[in-house]
Amino acid sequence: MATGSVLVLGGAGDMGSGVVEELARFGVKIDIGDIDAVRARAFAESLKDTGEVGVVEVNATSRSQLMEIARRYDLVVNAVGPFYKYGYIVAELLIEAGIDGLDLCDDYDAAEKILGLSDKAEREGVTFITGLGWTPGLSNILAKMGSYELGGEVDYIDIGWFGSAADSKGLAVVMHLFYALTGDVPMYLDGRIAMVKAGASPRTFEFPTVGRLKLYYTGHPEPLTIPRYIGVSQRVTVRGCLIPQWQTGLAKLFVSLGLTSTREKIESLSKFIHRIEGVFRAGGQPLSGVKVNVGRSGREISYASVGRMRKLTTAPAALGAQMMLQGRVKERGVHPPEAIIEPRHFLENLSDMGVTATKIIAHKE
To answer: Residue 362: CB partners within 8 Å, gap ≥ 6?
Structure first.
């Protein structure tokens, strides 16, 4: 049982609603903070037998309104995406308000800006965890677990993910995908951050259930954060794809045609794709997954987790929120998951929540 009250911003949305459900099962007192009060109330009513869930109508872009509302809570979870648009705005406001927080930020540039608020958060006595979802989030924790298994400093950490249109209904997910596949994105290569072309450098990953998939560079926060907190001598990379794989090719085509060259174009294209997303869901597998390969001196340990995107994303966030409410995460400042969470117990607790990771050991030449 966790004590304290939590506001989940975007709590009636595709991912935010999952955070609310998980927290309700923990017995946490939650309010859904959402601009769509009608949908939020209907969702809260559906959870009346699960836990204590209220509704607060709030526009996350209204600074004065959000400031006033956030101060009523012990913790705020931000699930309002896309995070390249809203992540920093919300994090900065919560820190100024002196409220502990957590978000699902999966955009690399927003994550870097949010981490830049750490000194201010320390001065305000605030703890804020950024990027505690699926990837980033679970991926970071698995990377840290792999480094522990290999004795500390490692040679490389390669992260691979796949997602499916049949496994998500959120507009923000579509916008994030196009953003992550557009332009140059950061990777940690040869011991330093380098900007590389998104959608390049294909590599095959093998996942449980779905088999071998070809993945490509995508813009995510892990290459920026992991080398700061885990000793890595060579590289930290993130690659991803969609299933069925023809959808990755279509997304890359849209990018090559310049249809995602600005944030405005990304939003316009994403809204169009979202309206016809049923076409893309047809015949697809409602599955997503992440695999993290960690290597040192010819030995490699991999962890793979496959399931529903909503569960993979929201269970880590809810568990992190519970830990914060219980005082198990005390460090002030802004932190990515690998800096502040002990992986072994976290993964054990996640397994109890239905998110498991398969461990694979290999020897490399």
So the answer is: 299, 300, 301, 302
Per-residue pLDDT reduced to its tens digit, 266-291: 999 888 887 776 655 555 688 999 99
Quick one: 238 and 337 in the same domain? no
Domain at 227, CATH number: 3.30.360.10
Residue ranges making up the domain that contains 345:
5-133+311-349
Q: Does position 365 have pLDDT exceeding 90, yes or no?
A: no
Which of 38, 39, 31, 41 shows the shortest CA–CA distance to 8? 31
- C-alpha 175 chain-centroid distance: 14
- Between residues 223 and 271, the one the model is more confident about: 223
Look at the chain and report how many structural domains it folds into.
2
Q: What is the pLDDT of residue 219?
A: 97
Question: Each residue of 151-190: pLDDT tens digit?
Answer: 989 999 999 999 987 887 778 888 899 999 999 999 999 9
Phi, psi of 51 (to 5 degrees): -170, -175
Under 8 Å between Cβ of 83 and 113: no
Kindly state whether residues 17 and 31 are assigned to the same domain. Answer: yes
d(C-alpha 186, C-alpha 197), whole Å: 9
Strand partners, 128: 101, 334
Q: Which one, of 350, 318, 347, 356, lies nearest residue 17 by Cα?
A: 318
Residues 242 and 232 in one domain: yes
Same domain as 191, residue 280: yes
Helix pair 138-149, 222-229: axis angle to 10 deg: 40
Q: Which two tokens stand for residue 61?
A: 């872009």
- H/E element, 160: strand 154-164
How is residue 118 written in tokens? Answer: 């750490």
pLDDT digits (tens, 9 = 90+) for 82-99: 999 999 999 999 999 999
Are 113 and 221 in the same domain? no
CATH of the domain at 122: 3.40.50.720
Residues 86 and 208 in one domain: no
